[in-house]
TrEMBL record:
The protein's name in its UniProt record: Triosephosphate isomerase
Keywords on record: Cytoplasm, Gluconeogenesis, Glycolysis, Isomerase
Classification via SUPFAM superfamilies: Triosephosphate isomerase (TIM)
GO biological process terms, semicolon-separated: gluconeogenesis; glyceraldehyde-3-phosphate biosynthetic process; glycerol catabolic process; glycolytic process
Coiled coil: none
Enzyme nomenclature, EC number: 5.3.1.1
CDD domains associated with the record: TIM
Species classification: Bacteria, Pseudomonadati, Bacteroidota, Cytophagia, Cytophagales
Amino acid sequence: MRKNLVAGNWKMNMTLQDGLALVSEITNMVQDEVTGSDVQVVICPPFPFLSAIGKQLPEGGRFHLGAQNCHQKESGAYTGEVSARMLQSVGAEYVILGHSERRQYFREDNELLSQKLKAALAAGLKPIFCVGESLETREADDTFNFISQQLKEGLFHLSNEEFDQVVVAYEPIWAIGTGKTATSAQAQEVHAFIREQIARAYDAEAAENTTILYGGSANAQNARELFSQPDVDGGLIGGAALKSRDFTEIIKSF
Ligand code: PGA
């Protein structure tokens, strides 16, 4: 079922000590202040902190642990890499795949991402699969084509059962870390388009049940307006996830 969800992507920030302090502030604030909403929260710290941060999250409630990437192979001689099964074994439930920073700096393409998705699902992880266009693509009026291709090549090879586990994140590249948020109308337009593509590739029920997050300079000021859109089910938050007060306000925005 579609749910309201806020995921914090810490990227390559924080030390373990900073991270533990941040999570303790966030969980305290959320427990005190978030009532009457069943919004789910996913914390995605860097690999080395996963286990320790996971232990600090209250069990059985709205908090979940996520990773920021995984390797496409199950195991083997891939020095420096981390498998989906390893993530699952330290308590991760989610994994972000296809973030534009991975696509851009690490040359991850739709073909590779389709393999990573399979690996994550085989290990029992729920992928948060990111799509989104560059400014150039938007200005060339090619956003829908571009996103439809990312979905087709990266995601729609999954079976119905596999697809059920996936969260989609729409992250316009021009909005990530730039302070330039998509307007709620721009976000809604693309979210509705993504849902329509899911209905075509699978069926109306799958489309209705898919959680679609917005990401890109979402913050405590604009979250309420973004989350009020009918097809925006939550957010994938970068910068504002590193500040306990800001992140909590975003979680409270439903
Ligand atoms: P931002 O990052 O909120 O700092 O723009 C979002 C993301 O990259 O997931």
